[in-house]
Design a protein that fits this description.
alpha/beta, 13 helices, 11 strands, elongated
């Protein structure tokens, strides 16, 4: 019996809008680098960006003038306390007034960048098949019974209305849509000031740096790019690593040997899938069908970092890249027959 699959963020009470339906219909989607959405949005939502490198260039140029009046006279500890009362927009704008403030505000700016661009980091995620209908069929301890009832209510709301779920229905929490059309990069670019929107988007396409701007739009450019809505995001150096913080396991992108169009996004989907029904609308060998539909990370907290920035975990960190790579190879060979790696036939098989 066919079933629909959907990614649930149990902590945020959100569903991944762009990644739902028959598993075989969206599992092999590619991960575009430029246009956000789908697999790209999923991985980006787990990965904290860095302060743009152009900010380091700006700080290194010329002299840093010591402010002798107003805020500039306050000790750093008191200044930091005052700055804690500023909202996000004010912080970014203040950081662009002078080098001293940009340097002082870097830690706070990074916190806001994480909230903006990595909202799903360290959240409990599960790619759940719709034919799993009983609480006791879930992975042990993955969620409370009340959380499970919220997912059931969300399913009912989606199937009956066909609309994006709202926050409340009949006084109870219903999951809201995230990623997809609600991807944060689309949101930010939509809210770039109207007079700058075309220039910002042209600048993104031409690869202009933050500071290669005329005087009239320079500050607006700096704000848009520093906040991550005027240029591609930048990340810490080093190959990305997909981490299960709950179990202390990780998958290294540079250890995957599958074709390049299969990424950490595919590894994540393969690790968090869960259903009592093995129907997946694609081919999978008998050896791996249960490995896929009883995902080793289903309902666990995940994030994307680099190997030298692994977060604290209750267990010692273990590299499971080889195991996940073997599963991805099984799926790839069974379903992607063309030279360019596109998905093969539309099977509804479980083996």
């Amino acid at each position: 019996m066919e079933q629909a699959w959907c990614i649930y963020n149990i902590d945020k009470k959100q569903v991944a809008e762009g990644l739902s339906g028959r598993l075989g219909d969206f599992f092999f989607d590619e991960t575009p680098e430029v246009v956000p959405g789908g697999h790209t949005a999923l991985i980006s939502s787990l990965r904290t960006p860095r302060i743009p490198r152009q900010a380091d260039v700006w700080l290194a140029r010329g002299k840093t003038v010591q402010q002798r009046h107003g805020f500039g006279k306050l000790p750093v500890e008191i200044l930091d306390n005052v700055l804690s009362y500023l909202d996000e927009i004010d912080l970014f704008m203040l950081a662009l007034t002078c080098k001293a403030f940009l340097s002082t505000l870097r830690p706070r700016l990074l916190v806001h960048l994480k909230e903006l661009h990595a909202p799903w980091q360290n959240c409990r995620l599960i790619l759940l098949g719709s034919n799993t209908t009983r609480y006791w069929d879930l992975p042990p301890g993955v969620m409370s019974e009340e959380e499970w009832k919220e997912i059931l209510l969300t399913r009912k709301h989606l199937s009956s209305s066909g609309l994006r779920p709202s926050l409340k229905r009949a006084g109870k929490q219903v999951y809201e849509s995230a990623l997809g059309r609600n991807d944060l990069l689309y949101y930010l670019r939509k809210h770039v000031p109207q007079g700058l929107r075309d220039e910002v988007l042209r600048g993104c396409g031409s690869g202009l740096g933050i500071w290669d701007l005329n005087r009239r739009t320079g500050d607006c450019w700096r704000f848009a790019c520093l906040r991550g809505c005027g240029a591609p995001l930048q990340y810490p150096d080093g190959p990305p690593v997909l981490c299960n913080v709950s179990q202390g396991e990780y998958v290294r992108e540079d250890s995957l040997t599958v074709p390049e169009n299969m990424t950490l996004a595919h590894a994540l989907l393969a690790c968090i899938a869960w259903s009592t029904d093995p129907s997946i609308a694609m081919e999978c060998s008998d050896e791996y069908i249960e490995v896929l539909t009883k995902g080793r990370w289903a309902g666990d907290r995940v994030c994307v970092v680099t190997l030298d920035t692994l977060p604290p975990s209750p267990a010692n960190w273990t590299d499971v890249s080889a195991d996940v790579d073997a599963l991805l190879w099984d799926l790839f060979l069974a379903n992607c027959s063309s030279d360019d790696g596109s998905a093969g036939g539309e099977g509804n098989s479980s083996a």
